[in-house]
Amino acid sequence: MIVISDTGKPFNILLADIVFQGEKTPVNEARRDSARLIKRMIDNIEQKRADNTNILTFNVAPRPRTKS
User: Fold this and answer.
1) Cβ-proximal residues to 59 (8 Å cutoff; 6+ apart), any chain
2) What are the tens digits of pLDDT across the range 6-63?
3) pLDDT band at 66 (very low <50, low <70, confident <90, very high)
4) Residues 61/9, Cβ–Cβ less than 8 Å
5) What is the pLDDT of residue 53?
6) Which of 5, 21, 46, 54 is buried deepest, with most CB atoms within 10 A?
7) How many domains does the chain have?
8) d(Cα 65, Cα 34) in Å, to the nearest integer?
9) Terminal alpha carbon distance of the chain
């Protein structure tokens, strides 16, 4: 399990690449590509804001090596 936290301005990576109905651009155009990459590579991502802190939690499972 990896937990990343910061006390910067509120930011939710799970919404960064979302384009809401009626809008033309994603919620956060500058972070759109990195948000998409993270969401593709990691299955279980949790984002919350508590006590003026952004908290991102995710699990990384080891993958078995395959023989070439």
Assistant:
1) 1, 2, 42, 43, 44
2) 998 888 888 777 777 777 777 777 777 777 777 777 878 899 999 999 999 988 777 6
3) low
4) no
5) 95
6) 54
7) 1
8) 26
9) 29
25, 18 contact by CB (below 8 A): no
CA atoms of 68 and 60, how far apart (whole Å): 23
**φ/ψ of residue 5, rounded to 5:** -135, 150
Note the pTM of the prediction, 2 decimals.
0.64
Residue 3 has pLDDT above 90, yes or no: yes
**Tokens matching residue 56:** 């991102």
For residue 37, being part of any structural domain is answered with yes
